[in-house]
Design brief:
It is built from 9 helices and 5 strands, in the order βαβαααβαβαααβα.
Length: 189
């Protein structure tokens, strides 16, 4: 089962996915990490992506879809894949829907937190590209391009919201409970 993790930059998607992967054997795929790896390795994809990432813009859909499709094409359906950072646009979501077999996407976890919390978290990471200006731009880009995905997955009955301005451990309890519940329902079907 693929679980889509939605939420603004700094909301804690990666932290929660990494914890769930570590404690429950789920697979965590962070498209941000994949992109940063491509940039560090100075690949053609990395060079192209870095132009957009350094401005705080989204990497074009065709580049993202190709990268993700390659990584999920052989993923076993009985395992749990926590897809962090993709899709980020409706076009990416539709391409993902087409690339996946029916029922492969079983859940979308929507992490929410106030913008002040997000900004403070992003500044605390200390990444070179996490300046006030870039963060404000990234949050604006997120709101415009990514928030429509909330409706997309809600309309499919796949969306579950998680408030993420709480303790990491409390959020993790909610994540695991929701994923387990969806897995149990799909096993009964």
């Amino acid at each position: 089962m693929i679980a889509i993790l939605l939420g603004a930059p700094g909301v804690g998607k990666g932290t929660q996915a990494a914890l769930a992967a570590e404690t429950h054997g789920y697979t965590h795929m962070s498209t941000g990490e994949l992109l940063r790896q491509e940039v560090a390795e100075d690949t053609e994809l990395g060079k192209s992506a870095d132009i957009f990432m350094s401005r705080g813009d989204l990497v074009p859909d065709d580049v993202m879809v190709q990268m993700v499709a390659e990584h999920i094409s052989n993923f076993p359906s009985e395992k749990v894949l926590l897809l962090d950072g993709f899709p980020r646009t409706i076009a990416q979501a539709e391409a993902l829907d087409e690339a996946c077999t029916s029922g492969a996407i079983g859940l979308s976890l929507y992490f929410t937190a106030p913008e002040t919390v997000l900004t403070d978290r992003l500044l605390a990471r200390g990444r070179q590209d996490d300046t006030h200006e870039v963060i404000a731009h990234r949050l604006g880009v997120y709101a415009k391009a990514t928030e429509p995905l909330v409706k997309h997955y809600a309309d499919q009955g796949l969306l579950r919201e998680i408030k993420s301005d709480r303790a990491v451990e409390d959020i993790q309890v909610d994540v695991l409970s929701i994923v387990s519940g969806v897995l149990n329902q799909s096993n009964l079907a």
